[in-house]
Amino acid sequence: MIKVYLSINDNSEVLLLPVTPSEYEIKESWDNKQIDGLYQSLNIVTKKGLSTIDLESFFPVKEYPFALNKTMYGSDYVDTIKRWWDLRIPIRLIIVNTDPSIKLDTVNMLVTIDSFTHRTATDGDIYYTLALKEFLLVVV
Predict the structure, then answer these.
(1) Does domain 2-32+46-134 have CATH number 2.40.30?
(2) Residue 18 vs residues 32, 63, 98, 140: alpha-carbon distances, Å
């Protein structure tokens, strides 16, 4: 079983997503530059860019047997994410696998919320897309 956690302020608040996204993709990029010459182009390898990840799922408004978190429902999740976003601080994203038969690395990274889109379906469940971008702490 895969579980997705979001938290702030060293776990002072932790949110377990109630329905694990069916899939997620971590996008990693390099900020390579192309220089066009007279007869050929060169690709100059530069620094690594920030990773991004999009999570898509839904927040149930009623109790489902498959829901992992039954402490909140529907708009409570939306309100929590919006409140965290308004704080303008990084969020800890942790994705863990508790099933030994599935080979999956744990994701543990600080992120910022780039966008949060949500819509309410006719059954009341709230479907969302949460776009996150890696946040690197500056060490001086």
Answers:
(1) yes
(2) 38, 10, 16, 38
Residue range 74-106, pLDDT digits in tens:
899 999 999 999 999 999 999 998 877 877 788
Residues whose CB is less than 8 angstroms from the CB of residue 16 and which lie 6 or more positions away in sequence, other chains included: 3, 4, 5, 68, 69
Can you tell me the distance from the alpha carbon of 93 to that of 137, in angstroms, rounded to the nearest whole number?
15
Per-residue pLDDT tens for 20-40?
A: 998 888 998 877 788 888 888
Q: What is the pLDDT of residue 27?
A: 92
- pLDDT, average across residues 117-121: 95
